[in-house]
Amino acid sequence: MPAESAPRGPAESGILACPLCRRAVAELGLIHGRRFHHCRGCDLISVPCECHLSPEAQSDRYARHENTEDNVGYVARFERIVDLMRSYCPGVRTVLDYGCGPGPVLVNLLRRAGFQATGFDPFFAPVADLSERFDAVTCTEVVEHFARPRTEFERLRSLLRPDGYLVIMTEFHPGPARLADWYYARDPTHVAFYSRETMSHIPDLFCMDAVYCDDRHLAILRRRDPA
């Protein structure tokens, strides 16, 4: 996603704020050549916008990923998503894969499983019809690329029908002390890192309910609307 201006703190001008919950962040210093911040409120770890790659550099890196149906391990991760949706997302028919990438593997798997699936990606599938709301939105290995997580999660919620499901896959971070040894933080396109605790805050921030969350990388949320 294109880098945008870093948000400022809600109380004092000049204080950087968490791009997800807007609370003040702590500096973690320079790691893998980039600066990192940690929010003690929602536990998000983020990279400030001046350390983000340009959109052109991001697109080039994404295009070189070997994420195809020939990659057995990659497909197995997505098959897990399909299985979880069958178990925890009743009544789902229409699905949007948000950030489908250059090879829409999950879209194809969902269609074979009987869902009406559509792929959207700002770089590789930007013309998808987003005028209708969906029963579910999948976001796999995408939220870590969000330059402005709060804005993006608001958009994701807006794409769901009432009681629709948001399915997220992203590696949960191991804590600030272990960030330097974590492979996920070395990818220069990764700028937002979530933990299981972060996933527990997201429902309250965006008027959703937690449906499922494991200890590694998967969460399912359901849109909640006033009665």
Write up what this structure looks like.
The chain is an alpha/beta fold and 227 residues long. The chain has a single domain, classed as Vaccinia Virus protein VP39 (Rossmann fold, 3-Layer(aba) Sandwich). The chain has helices spanning 55-63, 72-88, 105-112, 149-158, 196-205, and strands at residues 25-31, 34-39, 45-46, 94-98, 116-120, 134-140, 160-169, 192-193, 208-213, 218-223. The protein starts with 24 loop residues before the first strand and ends with a strand.
Sheet with the most strands?
A: 6 strands, mixed
Average predicted confidence as pLDDT: 91
Q: Low-confidence stretches at least 5 residues in length (pLDDT < 50)? A: 1-13
- What is the CATH level 1 assignment? Alpha Beta
State the helicity in percent bands.
10-25%
Radius of gyration: 17 Å
**Strand content bin:** 15-25%
* CATH topology value: Rossmann fold
Identify the CATH homologous superfamily: Vaccinia Virus protein VP39
- Output the structural class: alpha/beta
Strand order of the largest sheet: 5-4-6-7-10-9
Task: Give the termini distance in whole angstroms.
Answer: 34 Å
Question: What form results from the Cα inertia axes?
Answer: globular
